[in-house]
Amino acid sequence: MTPRAWAALTLAGLVVTLLVAAVLLVPWSRPPAPRADQLAALGELPRAEVARAREFRGALRPGSYGALVVGLLAALALGLTPLGAKLVSLAGRPFGDHWIAQAVLGGLLVVLAADLLTLPFAAWRHAVVARYGLSTQGWGGWTVDLLKSYAVSAVIGAVALLGFYTVTRLAPRWWWAFGAAGAAGLVVLLSFILPVLVEPVFNRFTPMEQGPLRTELMTLAARDGVPVRDVLVADASRRTRAVNAYVSGFGPTRRIVVYDTLLREATPAEVTSVVAHELGHAKDQDVFTGTLTGALGAAAAVIVLYLLGSWGALLRVAGVESIAEPRAFPLLIALVTVAGLVATPVQALVSRHVEARADEHALTLTGDPATFEAMQRRLSTVNLSDPDPPRWEYLYSASHPSTVERMAAARAHARGGGG
Ligand SMILES: [Zn+2]
């Protein structure tokens, strides 16, 4: 068998594994929250608050979709014309066209060029978020965060670029196999090290102080049979008024993180409700599942790119001879950008099902649907989220069920229909 045939076979195996994982691990069969309950919940929310949240979301929209369109156009312009390849060559020129300079500097230059084009939209977003009082950050702090995220991406990107183009040189016929394994390994590695190494670049985490709430949360975790090393508090208040909590890492790096804003805004019972939701993620291994499917997806993507690399017309429009050369990196970015736009609604759909299961877990664990509903209302109010967003936007990108869906699920649970 040729390397190409092996690649096609491996890809088929990965796709089947992904589909099986999606069928088995995603809780597809959650009962939908009755629309009548959703509308009743919406009717009970203060009208002025709903209007303000919708106004805020409307003000964000031109920036968000503008960034999406400009980002796509930039990726296509760089990848599907010789422009990007020329940019990569340019980066290598001061270094005698050395491949390492082309691979690392050229690659980072292409990404930076695309980032700079969408920067005005990010600034617009910050201006809107600040105008509505959701951000507590000035332009100085915003810029520092931006530079930090560029720095983190540059470090991870440089390692990935150097690794990838070393492999394409050493194994010109089999690079896809090493590349797929490397991409999968990188996803797993990032899942372990991001919470430990990268999150502290942006926030300070301190163990939740001893007291009734901490005792209550640790007892809740023990009762749930979920091994939690610690509950950490993030100093999110230095950039936002928004409230949140999440679980990150798995195995020895798993922890529950609660925003300090949540502790300030919500009652202890509501915090318990949020943490019960996060325990649901931990208990159902959602981070592990996400990492596993992410790793399989990344491996499959590398092989798809390799197979597309034999498409002569594609290489010609990009002005390159081989998909495996650093000058073809902009072409890879263009293909990955398009794939990302297509994958967004699929990821959102899976995420909403997983989140609904964690909600159900919280309702069962606390046995307190009234507090759960109060917490959802508070999340929506403080975070200025549209409790019942436009259907198209919900389908395209909503990672969580809407506020009214979550409130309706609590009501269904209270009636005993939520299982
Ligand atoms: Zn969640």
TrEMBL record:
The reply on keyword Glycosyltransferase is no
The CAAX prenyl protease 1 N-terminal domain extends over 72-204
Cite the entry's keywords alphabetically. Answer: Hydrolase, Membrane, Metal-binding, Metalloprotease, Protease, Transmembrane, Transmembrane helix, Zinc
CC cofactor note:
Binds 1 zinc ion per subunit.
Name the coenzymes or cofactors required: Zn(2+)
Q: Please give the start and end residues of each transmembrane region.
A: 6-26, 62-80, 100-124, 145-168, 174-198, 287-308, 328-350
Q: Which residues form the Peptidase M48 domain?
A: 209-412
The record, for Gene3D superfamilies, names:
Metalloproteases ('zincins'), catalytic domain
- Similarity annotation: Belongs to the peptidase M48 family.
Question: Which protein are we looking at?
Answer: M48 family metallopeptidase
The organism's lineage is:
Bacteria, Bacillati, Actinomycetota, Actinomycetes, Micromonosporales
